[in-house]
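Record 1 of the preview.
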Amino acid sequence: MSSRPSLDAKSKPSDVDLNILEAGLPEADKPVGRLQAFYRSTFFQMLVVGMLAFAGPAMSDAIAGLGGGGLATPYTANAASAASYAMMALFCFFGGPIVGRLGLKTTLLIGAATFPFDGSSLYVNSKYSIQWYLILGSALSGIGYGLWYVSEAGIILSYPEQNKRGRYLSLWIVSRNLGQLVGGAINLSTNVNSSTTGGIAASTYLIFVAIECLGFPAGFLFSAPDKVRRSDGSKINVAPPRTLREEMKLFWKAAATKRTLLLAIYFFYSFFYISVYGTYLSLYFSLRARALSSLISPAFCIIGCFTLGWVLDHPKLSQPQRAKLGFAIIVLSALGTYIYTFVVQAGFNKEDPGFLDLTDNGWARAFMPYFLIQTFGPMGQNYMYWLLSSFATDVQSNARNGGVFRSIEAIGQAVSFGINASGHDGFVGFGINFGLLIACIIPTWLVVRTVPEASPMEEEERAQVEMQEAVVGGQKD
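->
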């Protein structure tokens, strides 16, 4: 229940003001200068989260964009990634209660502190062939990412003004892809002369580690929910503090809802493709072709995510209409991508092309499956976050729901990397991926068709704004 004070017939403006003060709201209401107002704005908070996404997940994705973590063969890296996603799944699953007790900022910082383990473990393995640190470093980064993703989910689902959710979600995705663009440029510049196969230059990883180290200090720029100043005057709805036992009860309740169970297949499917297509890239492309792919793909993903954000925020469409249109875009683009992938893979099974370089005739056609999935795949995750936020009630519930989402998603990735840790026909991974897509369409549609005209969180925040306007009007009278 909200702790928002009520405005009834017996309340005087001064009484309401006192209630607001007692609720701890005045810090976000006091007049401040332009610089501090910007520092506390929703936009700046999303920029900070974007900076952290740039330093952490984006660098990890850029390395993954090389296929097999940039190592000579993908199988060791896939095994390490399976360990990472297993730990991520565990800590995402229980991340909601942890965030509820420690708060968004503390959990965000703990997660950011583990970013450098990702690149450093790959560097040590590439340089010195030490595999134990690759597994340990991957597991530690998985723990950190699990906590960070839950905090991130609570922020990106709760902080934006309701009419800007799609755009801010797109900004978050774009931050990750800008990071991948930078990572792709690093990959290409250090491996541009490598027309053969094999692992990337070990020095490439050191550049990634240096960027990953920037995430932790950047996290201190983030503001807690009660200090944020939204442009529409509404407050971020934060539930009152609860004990760990109460948080766990609410978490299990969120995990067992009909909506979560219906969306579970989509959660599992959403990023299953990363290992499947990463393995495809490492098996059929030269080093510089793989490096170029990590530069090209993010650029078009940015365009796709902004387009989807525009659709999801379209003012002339109701929220249920936007939900259905967005879902249609996600499903149709995925179906087209997998069908084309099957055609290309069938040709490779018939005649092995070897390792394709940029100068080879079949390079562009073979690259298209990876290009398409890297464009449309993140759009699917963007949409799912928007869909979850349509049912939000407060920051903590968003963290719990986001944690469940990322946990099941991480389980899917762990399974995918485990499958691809040993050689097999390329059709196996693609077939499982396609089957998961088909299996999730109807259950996800059952949730999409129940999207309300406005989320419970939006209704609550709108009531807060109306209450404040009433207070101001009463004081003037």
